[in-house]
Amino acid sequence: CAKPSFQDGKPAMAKSSDENEKLAWYPLRAPFDATVIDKHITLGEKLSGDSYAFTVADMSSVWINLNIHQKDLALVKPGQHVRIAAGPPVPKLEGTISYLSPVVGQSSRTTLARVVLDNTSGLLRPGTFVTADVLVDKVPAKVAVAKDTLQHLDNKTTIFVRTDHGFEPRTVTLGRSNDAFVEITSGLEPGEKIVTKNSFRLKAELENVAGGGHAGHAH
Fold it and tell me: 93: domain CATH number?
């Protein structure tokens, strides 16, 4: 908070010797470059030396406070990478956990984890609700594909693989996954070329042929 500054030892507003109240302009200077985030005074209010006129804050960086559920505490620790989403117009952000509280809240049963982010753009505002993904482990996968490459044919998970004669549907077995990718444990080998976009069109062609319609061979 920035307290009123003084000139010649006089407070921001003072009584004159004839006891008539007079107003005078006095500058209020924050001790650092900051943004006013709260005002505690009104026009005409008298201030004393210990009054708080404004609350100011350095907004060039912000704290992201995450609530970690008790069941997940064994997986979370300082230094872990975090992906943060605050919604438009703020782009997705990345940082690391700089602090993990040793205390669990009695009512929430969660623990505070803190991420410090640069905010020179000013897009992040205190009080904004965010969601975060904490990278708790890295597991190598022999083959992994984007989730939107998967299709379902005859109740089987299928990927379209490029061959010398076009594209063929290949039944695959899924393993571990995150929000964007999924591991393929069988049915696809490293280096094989697959359809990554618009695979639903190939699926539609196959279903059309199976239903008695006519469709050209996909290339």
Answer: 2.40.30.170
The total number of structural domains in the chain stands at 2
Is the residue at 3 inside a domain?
A: no
> How confident is the model over 1-26, as a mean pLDDT?
47
- The CA dihedral of 146, 152, 153, 159, to the nearest 10 degrees, is 10
For residue 198, the enclosing domain spans 144-210
Q: Give the dihedral sign, CA 130/131/134/139.
A: negative
The whole model's pTM is what? 0.57
pLDDT band (50, 70, 90) for residue 83: very high
Confidence category of residue 23, pLDDT binned at 50, 70, 90? low
The number of C-alpha atoms within 13 Å of 122 and in the hemisphere containing its C-beta is: 4
